[in-house]
Write a structure and sequence with these properties.
Number of helices: 12
Mean pLDDT: 92
Strand content: 15-25%
Bound molecules: iron/sulfur cluster
Low-confidence stretches: none
Oligomer: single chain
Helix content: 40-55%
Distance between the termini: 18 Å
Structural class: alpha/beta
């Protein structure tokens, strides 16, 4: 059989060294992975595992859980053991929880050098424990909790300050011959964040975890993250991503996956090509597109469905898609693989599209 062509991407990936986060490879030629973070109390093991299962089903590759107390640390072994995807423990303030997370079998530990007490003195010990356990580390520099020394030096969390913090902490791990770490330099301003990652990418071959921190509610956070990740990923920068939203983390995974799909960095799944409607529309395009999207939710095959409001661009787009409708005069012309297969009443368009989509999906490989 013919070898399928690799999808076109905007730039080759930056050459980063590869690390392992449990079973997931990060960096090098590994696919860019999607991360999210649980919002349950970590001590509530059942609720946390249930949310991890939902995130996994939505396409999450790696999950992070907060570990702010001893009770949370005590819950980690069970969560790490039963999670379907690698678990990263998120540690602030207390170095003892770093060791607890490593002992618990977490795939990785996120440390924030800016707010872990006497972190620099502990790096050797952390590096040894992590190496022995096959656990990787994320050095997670964050604008909101930058090291005080650097804040004083730079005046605020500039890209230079974020990068200086990250490079310093990376050098401490490297002095202890520990290299299984990735780095993030998050800021809530996409411009500062993009500059910081661009600078960091020039300074070493560390795998990079992208994030716009505290990006806001779903609408704003989606746009900020898409713009910032798009700017970096389109230059090949970024090995793993997390979209931070003040919303259900499942939404974070959906947005993150869609960003990667849009850039051909993850195989495309269902794609609805729908027109914005205009004064020429002869059907209610919004309702039509919404109902088709809802009816096909969860489809995991790379199907392109065009929902078009009139005959200007309708037949063209519908013909280009796997399946489509060009509407007009109370009717819809249904296209499959470029050919009109039937014309149906407006009231039957949604049902027909869903029926045909499911039929086509049966013969398609899952992406
Ligand atoms: Fe307007 Fe027709 Fe284009 Fe939709 S396809 S935006 S209705 S011209």
């Amino acid at each position: 059989p013919a070898i399928p062509e690799a999808p076109e991407v905007l730039a080759p990936r930056r050459r980063s060294r590869q690390i392992k986060v449990g079973k997931v490879l990060v960096g090098g030629d590994a696919p860019v992975s999607v991360q999210s973070m649980t919002t349950t109390q970590t001590t509530d093991v059942n609720a946390t595992l249930q949310q991890i299962a939902q995130l996994t089903a939505a396409g999450c590759d790696i999950v992070r859980v907060a570990c702010p107390s001893q009770d949370d640390a005590d819950a980690l072994p069970e969560i790490a053991r039963h999670s379907q995807i690698p678990v990263i423990a998120d540690i602030h303030f207390q170095p003892k929880y770093v060791f607890a997370a490593i002992d618990a079998g977490c795939a990785a530990v996120r440390v924030n050098p800016g707010n872990i007490k006497a972190f620099d003195d502990k790096v050797g010990e952390i590096a040894r424990a992590a190496k022995d356990a096959g656990c990787s580390i994320r050095i997670g520099v964050n604008a909101g909790s930058l090291d005080k020394r650097l804040l004083e030096k730079h005046g605020k969390a500039t890209p230079e300050a974020l990068v200086e913090s990250a490079v310093w902490e990376a050098s401490l791990f490297e002095e202890h011959d520990f290299h299984d770490f990735k780095i993030s330099v998050k800021h809530n301003d996409p411009v500062v964040m993009v500059k910081a990652y661009e600078m960091l990418a020039e300074r070493g071959d560390w795998p990079l975890h992208l994030g716009v921190t505290e990006a806001g509610p779903a609408f704003q956070g989606t746009i900020k993250s898409a713009v910032a990740f798009g700017a970096l990923l389109s230059k090949g920068i970024g090995d793993t991503i997390r979209v931070s939203l003040s919303a259900d983390p499942v939404e974070e995974v959906k947005v993150g996956s869609k960003i990667l799909e849009s850039l051909n960095l993850r195989p495309r799944k269902l794609e609805i090509v729908s027109c914005p409607s205009c004064g020429r529309a002869q059907v209610d395009v919004y309702t039509l597109a919404e109902r088709v999207t809802a009816g096909l939710e969860g489809l995991t095959v790379p199907l392109r469905v065009a929902v078009m409001g009139c005959v200007v661009n309708g037949p063209g787009e519908a013909r280009e898609a796997d399946l489509g409708v060009a509407s007009g005069n109370g009717k819809g012309q249904i296209f499959v693989k470029g050919e009109v297969i039937k014309t149906v009443k407006e009231s039957d368009i949604v049902e027909t599209l869903i029926e045909e989509a499911l039929r086509l999906a049966e013969d398609m490989p899952e992406s």
